[in-house]
Design a protein that fits this description.
Blueprint: H1 3-54, H2 61-83, H3 90-93, H4 98-133, H5 145-148, H6 150-171, H7 188-199, H8 202-209
Helix pairs in contact: 1-2, 2-6, 4-6
Amino acid sequence: MSKPQTEKKGDANIVMRIGHVFSRVLDTFEVAVLSLGTALLAILLIINVIARNVSMSIYFAEELSKLFIILITFTGTSFAARKARHIRMGAILEQLPPKVEKTIVIIISAISAIVMLYLAYVAFDYVKTLKFRGTRTQALGVRYWTYVAIAPVMLFITAVQFFRTIIKNFVEEDVWLSPEQQSEFEDEDAMVADVIEKAGGEDWKIKEKK
């Protein structure tokens, strides 16, 4: 193998490692926000219903509910783009030849990335306006821009996920619906391999043999 080819392979490995670390960190963050946000939202609403029947409702319940919904919505947008859980015409795409399917996926991902970048810009401008005005929530008196600050961040990350999908389809021969989802439905081998990787990879296999 020539020196230029070795250098290119080394650069590709570095990029793949960075992408893998980025995905793991982002996955931990998104799963934590979605899990905790959904659980806390449910608990808050249940407690508020009980409080209404007993005496009086919690005065800040509505504001916190809005915060949790904002967190869940925009974090879920990024999660859906990374795991290919967003709405798409999967039944139609799967009937097309692989090259045509790959081309359509790349075009859709490119358009989606541009739209997400534009929405991230609009959301960022909105956050700046709220911060400049000093708008506060009525019940808790918290600066409202802190409630929606996650919107431009997660919209931008969603755009990054679509760009990663484009790169993945250019690099790999198979069709990738997202950076981490190759086909419409994961097979058992892929699911087992993912579990083994999260459990410690080769060390897990060695322990199992022992």
